[in-house]
């Protein structure tokens, strides 16, 4: 049976898989976002700052998508999403599909809202990492690391349901009141 937290994260990825990043009703107003690795690294800030950064990022890409390979409930407040990115750089023409794009996102959930997202751009590096200290925001807990080790490396094309990939124009929410 699917939990409400899994259903929430699944619904977020349903939009992201279509290239629609406009909704933010799932986010707590005081949401925290952090990139544990990758090009940006570090804390990204609150909802307004995240939305601004997301719009700036999406402006650099055509047909950008985040697609869930698998969703795992870690405990009553956390869902781990194993995902991959696709899209084409507007300036470079680089197709993300030609390079490793497997990552992970750890969603922290309270009262039906996402309160924190930690992004791991490099899933293989994430799998190799182990907790360094209690409270280290960017190092996965033992339960998250264990879930990563159990995850298959293949793609299912959808958030744990084997859905086909969909194609649609990216919207950034500027006109829709989203991000």
| Total count of helical runs of at least 4 residues | 4
Low-confidence stretches: 130-138, 150-179
Q: What's the helical proportion of residues?
A: 10-25%
Report the sheet-strand fraction. Answer: 25-35%
Sheet of most strands? 6 strands, mixed
Order of helices and strands: HEEHEEEEHH
Which structural class should the secondary elements be placed in?
alpha+beta
Task: Characterize the structure shown.
Helices cover 23% and strands 32% of the residues. By secondary structure, the protein is an alpha+beta fold. The protein has a 6-stranded mixed beta sheet. The chain is globular, with a radius of gyration of 15 Å. The C terminus is likely disordered.
What secondary-structure arrangement, pairings included, does this model have?
Layout (H helix, E strand, L loop, with lengths): L3 H14 L9 E9 L6 E4 L1 H12 L2 E15 L2 E12 L12 E9 L2 E8 L2 H6 L13 H9 L29
Parallel strand pairs: 1-6
Antiparallel strand pairs: 1-2, 3-4, 4-5, 5-6
In summary, what is this structure?
The protein has 179 residues and is of the alpha+beta class.
